[in-house]
Amino acid sequence: MTASTGTSRRALLAKVGLLFNGIVGAILAVPVLRYLLSPITRGRKPGYESWLPLGGLEQFPAGQTRLATFRNPAADSWDGQTADIPCWVRNLDGKNFQVFAINCAHLGCPVRWFPQSNLFMCPCHGGVYYSDGSQAAGPPPRGLFRYIYRVEAGRLLINGGEMPTTGSPSANRYGVKPPCA
């Protein structure tokens, strides 16, 4: 092409290349900018140390143990039902409660409540717990994890703090990893 007819082929390809690189750069910049600006643009979500409702006191009759669920405070919208965390609520006398994590202290399998025997039992490796959550038999190194609770305006709330794992010192009374895990 000549200079009188307009843009040369080389200049046209350079402009198309710059346009393409600009589009790709803009697309790649979107997630980076969202990450950098997330503390400003994202709403404040409740943290792990927030108080989470389990339900009204009428849902937990005195002298009974019931299954309840709460929503993980750090859940995202795409978590779906996996963000609903079950726990066992034991109403001792109508005023005092015990709230246990559903996970066995051995390897985290969900324990079940058997009212006939007044025991929690783990189906995976035979862990057994008394009604107060203490270890009765089997391989678990300790009792069930207890949530801190409070009663407010006729509702039972728990502190949904991070649960200990078998590898963390707060998970067992000796501060060492149990030999079975």
TrEMBL record:
For molecular function, the Gene Ontology terms on record are:
2 iron, 2 sulfur cluster binding; metal ion binding
Q: Membrane-crossing residues?
A: 12-37
Cofactor(s) for this protein? [2Fe-2S] cluster
Disordered, as annotated region? 162-181
Q: Which ranges carry the Rieske domain?
A: 89-158
Q: Does the keyword Iron-sulfur apply?
A: yes
Taken from the UniProt entry, a GO cellular component term is: membrane
* Keywords (A to Z) from UniProt: 2Fe-2S, Disulfide bond, Iron, Iron-sulfur, Membrane, Metal-binding, Transmembrane, Transmembrane helix
Q: Which Pfam family name is an example for this entry?
A: Rieske
Q: Which residues constitute the signal peptide according to the record?
A: none
Does Transmembrane helix show up as a keyword for this record?
Answer: yes
PROSITE patterns membership: RIESKE
- Protein name, UniProt field: Rieske (2Fe-2S) domain protein
